[in-house]
Amino acid sequence: METRAHLRLFILFIVVSTYTLVSAEDDRRTYIVHMDKSARPGHFSSHHDWYMSTLSTLSSPEETEPTHLYTYNHVLSGFSAVLSESQLAKLAELPGHLATYPETFGEGHTTHTPKFLGLKKKSGLWPRANFGEGMIVGVVDSGIWPESDSFRDRGMPPVPDRWKGTCESGVEFNSSLCNLKLIGARSFSQGMKRRGLNISTTDDYDSPRDYWGHGSHTSSTAAGSPVKDTNYFGYAEGTASGIAPLAHLAMYKVLFLNTSYDAAATDTLAAIDRAIEDGVDILSLSLSFTETSFDQNPVAIGAFAAMQRGIFVACSAGNAGPHAYTMHNGAPWLTTVGAGTFDRELGAHVTLGIGNGSFTIPGKSIFPENLLISRLPLYFGHGNRSKELCEDYSLDPKEVEGKIVFCDYSAENDGTNPSEIIRAGAAGAIFSTEEGRILKPEDFTTPYVAVIPKFGNKIRRYIKHSKDPVVSIKFQVTFLGVEPNPEVMWFSSRGPGREALWVLKPDIIAPGVDVLAAWTPNRGIAPIGDDYHFLLSDYALQSGTSMSAPHVAGVGALLKSAHPDWSPAAIRSAMMTTAYILDNTGGPIIDVTTGVAATPLDYGSGHIDPNRAMDPGLIYDMEPEDYIEFLCGMNYTTKQIRVITGRSNFTRCTPSLDLNYPSFILILNNTNATSFTFKRVLTNVADSASSYQATVTSPLGMRITVEPEKLVFPQKNSKASFTMAVEISLGTLESVSPQSDYIGNYGFLSWHEINGTHVVRSPIVSAFGP
Ligand SMILES: *[C@@H]1O[C@H](CO)[C@@H](O)[C@H](O)[C@H]1NC(C)=O
Ligand SMILES: *[C@@H]1O[C@H](CO)[C@@H](O)[C@H](O)[C@H]1NC(C)=O
Ligand SMILES: *[C@@H]1O[C@H](CO)[C@@H](O)[C@H](O)[C@H]1NC(C)=O
Ligand SMILES: *[C@@H]1O[C@H](CO)[C@@H](O)[C@H](O)[C@H]1NC(C)=O
Ligand SMILES: *[C@@H]1O[C@H](CO)[C@@H](O)[C@H](O)[C@H]1NC(C)=O
Ligand SMILES: *[C@@H]1O[C@H](CO)[C@@H](O)[C@H](O)[C@H]1NC(C)=O
Ligand SMILES: *[C@@H]1O[C@H](CO)[C@@H](O)[C@H](O)[C@H]1NC(C)=O
Ligand SMILES: *[C@@H]1O[C@H](CO)[C@@H](O)[C@H](O)[C@H]1NC(C)=O
Ligand SMILES: *[C@@H]1O[C@H](CO)[C@@H](O)[C@H](O)[C@H]1NC(C)=O
Ligand SMILES: *[C@@H]1O[C@H](CO)[C@@H](O)[C@H](O)[C@H]1NC(C)=O
């Protein structure tokens, strides 16, 4: 069978895969070494001195000495170093040695949004949080373009006294480039360099300067200053603003250009370690490493340390969707963010015919030139009848020159093939396809418009009834208030998370499709023509869960500013229990992949709603100890738990897989009737006494009993507990989603405030294990 559809897709999310460093010349490799800091001999004035001294004792005279990379103080107690196998063996014998892990590598995951999120200047969370004033958002990413308008500091408050970060100079980066908006910028490349990356031979910068554009995009999304009149080649014109426009930013660069954009575990741990030391309030990470057990995952380890210090951590869920068990960054102590669409679409007006009887339809396009196609002949036919229309070498250049080609794809075989349009020398094309929603700026190398099949049929009828069909196209059109929105994007990674089945992931979704934000202005963003000539832009449209995580980091900054006493778990709970699950037509949020209702395994608790998250009524709070009990429940060893928590005196705890999480998941076993009783504690965070009544929405085959059904909170901060028994009859189970790999059910538990307006909703999912 021939493929007629060529679809170039480029999604941003960094999938980090595991490679072990193998050097050609010797057996020296990079390791992360966890030490028991209580074993430090008294005569060393610091842990660093102890580690350096330890390293110096490891080599015999004829050997190369170990090379120290980083000392870690917060994410773990220990260091990273390049060691030979014999040095490693000696180290493992020393008192105080806890565990050693080899280096691993991960890859990077690939404006109008504040309005879509309902943020308003005069009411709600923005003024209540004073636009994030005083908060510091740390972004671990590919660097930053400090000259971007989004990082100007006009109107910014002074740098908080507690800030200990710095702005490092380096290649094309001068420390004087930092200001009241960008208050810190550091680069971590030791691990990548040990792998053999010579940054001076790539185009990347050996400094905090962003080469890719990804880090500038995520930073400006989280906390960029408002910038008027931004656009992407005439599309999405408007004011671009970060979610927390008065928050400060600090960049921690770990992603460097290799063949893709990679990060080393040693560098990522060092970046989070410094961010904690520097004093960030929020961390945003749009990258991930392979989903291994948490003790081997630098994001999970780093986020645990951050959480213990009250730092809220938002991470992208990954772009490995749409199937089950594709979740990245699924640790329960961080907030995992999936990607949704929002109500702005970019495209073109397509007018068929002239004058009386002509009609205009909308289509998707991000062709980057200001081009007005006026009354060109519309071509619908075959140059070569043995080929499918618009397939490679199907068009005859003599027939299509100067014309717009109509490529009508059937639903089961749709797509676009701009390269054939370019090859044949047509003036442009209209593709009738279901796939318009998922096209990226990189797909628009030639003037074309993708229309949905409903409009494709209209065009076909028009051509059939017209002697000389003609078409006019106006590009650079921005459609607002598009319905239905949001939808869950197909690429967004889906739950359950493999590593921790007993927490429902993702936690939430946020805008992640065609997000406009700052970009590196010196590198091409929009390829046009068949020679891929790149146009430049200082603002770019990007799609991926990489784009959704910084939205949630920005909301985290606003919530922490409005409620400085809230823990990271409380901030996440507020976001989750107030998230919405209906779209802007009042129907359930749709999964783009299937066109039918999405489930909590796609969107977690729903789409983030910042204004409601400001005032959730009740929260499900958690302490670091709760997560440790969870690790015990997962049967992690004492050593693994010491590595994850950095608590070298940890010995044992009560195992429990039932975290005080704001969502519920029941992994089904192979029996016909199964049940589980969850225990939860709610805390009243409203200013006065309140009482709540439980309401349950349960599907066929899921029996839910809440005890008690009424909770009374005598005052602010009072707590009340309840149990929820969920009983499943397997005989009634069906696919939770048409992707058939989720067999299970889902329902919701809502606590409705009596004589009040708060509703505290949690999804309840049952699904089979992987
Ligand atoms: C950094 O910029 C300042 C002010 O523009 C200048 O005086 C200084 O020489 C620069 N430093 C470097 C290392 O380029
Ligand atoms: C570049 O990435 C490849 C894997 O994609 C890896 O094998 C290689 O070692 C990397 N090179 C450097 C210099 O990091
Ligand atoms: C990196 O590449 C540059 C330019 O080719 C070369 O001068 C330099 O010695 C290299 N550095 C290392 C550490 O290999
Ligand atoms: C368009 O056609 C209709 C009938 O076919 C006629 O009544 C109308 O006057 C025409 N309008 C123009 C602007 O020609
Ligand atoms: C039409 O396509 C067929 C199959 O690829 C090819 O063999 C044939 O040469 C083409 N004919 C013309 C006129 O291009
Ligand atoms: C932990 O180990 C116990 C005892 O072997 C076992 O019953 C339980 O299923 C294990 N838990 C998990 C999450 O694997
Ligand atoms: C472990 O050490 C920490 C301080 O490092 C201390 O607060 C804690 O009480 C200790 N726990 C135990 C069980 O000794
Ligand atoms: C599934 O089985 C394991 C051990 O076989 C048990 O520990 C666990 O509680 C069961 N889970 C459910 C939800 O029944
Ligand atoms: C579950 O129930 C179905 C019919 O209700 C039966 O065919 C099947 O054998 C049962 N499975 C188990 C594991 O009991
Ligand atoms: C709710 O309001 C009604 C009418 O004011 C009152 O009778 C009732 O006691 C209130 N219930 C609660 C739980 O406050």
UniProtKB/TrEMBL annotation:
This is Uncharacterized protein. One of its GO terms (molecular function) is serine-type endopeptidase activity. The active site is at residues 141, 214, 546. It comes from Punica granatum (Pomegranate). It holds the Pfam family Peptidase_S8. Keywords: Glycoprotein, Hydrolase, Protease, Secreted, Serine protease, Signal. Residues 30-104 form the Inhibitor I9 domain. GO terms for biological process: proteolysis. The keyword Membrane does not apply. It comes from the Eukaryota. It is found in: Secreted. SUPFAM superfamilies: Subtilisin-like (SSF52743). PROSITE patterns: SUBTILASE, SUBTILASE_SER. InterPro entries: Peptidase_S8/S53_dom, Peptidase_S8/S53_dom_sf, Peptidase_S8_Ser-AS, Peptidase_S8_subtilisin-rel, Peptidases_S8_3, S8pro/Inhibitor_I9, S8pro/Inhibitor_I9_sf, SBT. Its main location: secreted. Belongs to the peptidase S8 family. GO terms for cellular component: extracellular region. The keyword Membrane does not apply. Residues 658-765 form the Subtilisin-like protease fibronectin type-III domain.
